[in-house]
Amino acid sequence: MKKFTSLVFISAFISMAAYAQVSNTDAKIKSSNAITVGVRESSAPLSYAIGSSEYAGYHVELCAKVLKRLYPNAKITYMTVTPQNRIPLLQNGTIDIECGSTSNTTSRKEQVDFAVTTYVTEARYAVKKSSGINSTDDVIKKKIVTTVGTTPVQHLRRLEQAKGVKLDVVYAKDHSEAFLLVESDRADAFAMDDNILAGNIAASKNPNAYKIVGDPLSVEAIGIMLRKDDPIFKAGVDSQVKSMMKSGELKTLYEKWFLAPIPPKNSVIGIPMGATLIELIKNPSDAPAEVLVIK
Known about the structure:
Layout: H1 2-22, H2 25-32, E1 34-39, E2 42-43, E3 47-50, E4 54-56, H3 58-70, E5 75-80, H4 86-91, E6 97-98, E7 112-114, E8 119-128, H5 136-139, E9 143-147, H6 151-163, E10 168-172, H7 175-183, E11 189-193, H8 194-202, E12 210-222, E13 225-227, H9 231-247, H10 249-258, H11 275-282
Parallel strand pairs: 1-5, 1-6, 9-10, 9-11
Antiparallel strand pairs: 2-3, 3-4, 7-13, 8-11, 8-12
């Protein structure tokens, strides 16, 4: 009985120690001299893959700058995450920070935390110009695709209730698959954040064949995702981001990825910085979208 009790105690102690390590990212990075960054494959221009092992984008570069300033000697490794696994991989310590395209919402903040908001997006629809689709009322009569595990899933359900219709919605495993369904005429409209829609259009075989339409499904705050209850690491990340906001470096970074040619096709996303993000650069906030006053 004593042996069993001891084993239980040891097991509990090990579990507690592991949790303590994961919940203190700053100590974990300083101890290992390594950082694993979660990134996305097809969330241009925020976070996307170039080739088989290189990642680029506004949030990828922003995170790299922040982390190199906080931990100049640490090795940065990138790991692809999806909408389905990004939160569990952050929680269990597989990744240390997520530099993708995750919306800061009240429900997500129960599980994770976010740095101050660095992008504000509208969720709308990408369609072919030849489709004859020009408005939300046109979209709701067609087949809509969105990416599983993303906020537009819930917003499409609310749209159903608001319009009093049953939408024909299919779900893709990632953004590139969702766009491919529209490209191959297996869906008529891709519902997603405008920056992701614009990024997929710009990277497509024929960018001039597509347009973004409809009233916004939502307006959302997007930021770098961090582990919950990890105050030292969050304070460090926030401090660096705020410093870049104050100096004008973040604005320059935004213009590089949204208003200038980007790899791999030197296409231009063409989304100027909105009034809300301009205000958030002056007065940084990590408030979720539901609380944040969107202009």
